[in-house]
Specification:
By secondary structure, this protein is an alpha/beta fold. The protein has 12 helices and 15 strands. It has 2 domains: about 220 residues, Type I PLP-dependent aspartate aminotransferase-like (Major domain) (Aspartate Aminotransferase, domain 2, 3-Layer(aba) Sandwich), CATH 3.40.640; about 120 residues, Aspartate Aminotransferase, domain 1 (Alpha-Beta Complex). The strands form 4 sheets. A 7-stranded mixed beta sheet has the order 1-9-8-5-4-2-3, sandwiched between helices. It has a 3-stranded antiparallel beta sheet with strand order 7-6-13, with no helix packed on it.
């Protein structure tokens, strides 16, 4: 038992940059090849191989990986894309960015991922894609989403920003459709900033490589409208070093999550669907009936525990969407309930045993 008067300072995330990453960056700087080059190609190949995917296309951040994925599927004005509202803003903003309309569907109450039933019910003759999010590191129900998309001839675009290495049986999240990953510093691995698209479709991969490079496959021959979404070799060098650490970090996240689940008694702990590997980008709990979530988070923060709420306001209630009349009366009851009740606790792989004990002691005391 840790003395009640003792406090710690435990962040919700703790990005790690070690000697291998620093040496890799210096080698790039010394080489003079700073823009997209050999290290980007190596990172693409190794990240794709880790997930058993055919193609990896590196880009400069997670948001552009979503935008490029939508563009590669030729989704634009007049089209609809079904998305959850309980996720980071970029999921829906990427749809707006290509001129299409996000259509919000409700989540599953246990995994917090997009509900296949709700998504299928939202399909119209304008629907061109479904974009499930593997939220907090737990994969969405991809076998069902794959079946729905095949049935309705829709593109399946995975927002895999939080799910590096997550699995359904033997299959990785990010290999069921066109999948977008983020390497922001707080993710399970980082390139400082960066993103990656995985696909097994040769033509989608070809389009993605043009879109991220000003619409070119051959220099000064522009086949499509494209942008500078390229990743630098500096970022890729960091990513290659981080990818080597990812398996061990993933196992430590799962170990930390198992400890929290076994020890926490005052909150509703996260589920892992049978046969799934949850990689715990976040360890997200619910307060019990009658407990004020925001008060709990405030008190934990005062005790030095970096509890955070992901996400305190659903996307359809964000000011930019409330200016659009079509989103004024959206009803998503499971989303609303999660928004009021969930918060996340530190689960990153650098937690010490003492820090884990302190977290569970304080949560059980405060809730």
């Amino acid at each position: 038992m840790i003395p009640a008067e003792k406090t710690m300072n435990i962040g919700i995330a703790k990005p790690y940059i070690g000697d291998a990453e620093k040496q890799a960056v210096m080698e790039v700087l010394d080489s003079g090849q700073l823009a997209q080059g050999a290290r980007v190609k190596a990172f693409e190949e190794q990240f794709a191989a880790y997930h058993n995917a055919k193609h990896g296309i590196a880009v400069n951040n997670g948001t552009t990986s979503l935008i490029a994925s939508l563009m590669a599927h030729e989704i634009g004005a007049g089209d609809e894309v079904i998305v959850p509202a309980f996720t980071f803003f970029a999921t829906a903003a990427s749809v707006l960015s290509v001129g299409a309309k996000p259509v919000f569907a409700d989540i599953e109450p246990d995994t917090f991922c997009l509900s296949p039933e709700a998504a299928e019910a939202a399909i119209t003759d304008k629907t061109k894609a479904i974009m499930p999010v593997h939220l907090y590191g737990h994969a969405a129900d991809m076998p069902r989403f794959k079946a729905i998309c095949d049935k309705h001839n829709l593109a399946l675009i995975e927002d895999a920003a939080q799910s590096h290495g997550a699995k359904i049986g033997d299959d990785f999240a990010g290999t069921w459709g066109t999948a977008s990953f983020s390497f922001y510093p707080t993710k399970n691995m980082t390139t400082s900033e960066g993103g990656m698209v995985l696909t097994n479709d040769d033509e989608i991969a070809r389009r993605l490589r043009m879109i991220r490079n000003q619409g070119m496959n051959t220099q000064y021959y522009h086949e499509v409208i494209g942008y500078n979404f390229r990743m630098t070799d500096i970022s890729a060098a960091i990513g290659l070093a981080q990818l080597e650490r990812l398996p061990a970090w993933t196992e430590q996240r799962i170990t930390n999550a198992d400890y929290l689940t076994e020890t926490l008694k005052s909150v509703v702990t996260p589920v892992t669907r049978p046969g799934y590997r949850h990689v715990f980008h976040q360890y997200t709990v619910r307060v019990k009936e009658g407990v004020n979530r925001d008060d709990v988070v405030k008190r934990l923060n005062e005790r030095g525990i970096g509890a955070r709420v992901y996400y305190p306001r659903p996307i359809h209630e964000q000011p930019v969407f409330q200016k659009m009349p079509e989103y004024a009366n959206v009803s998503l009851p499971y989303t609303a309930k999660a928004t009021d009740e969930v918060f996340s606790l530190p689960v990153h792989p650098l937690l010490t045993d003492e820090e884990r004990e302190y977290i569970t002691q304080e949560v059980n005391s405060i809730c």
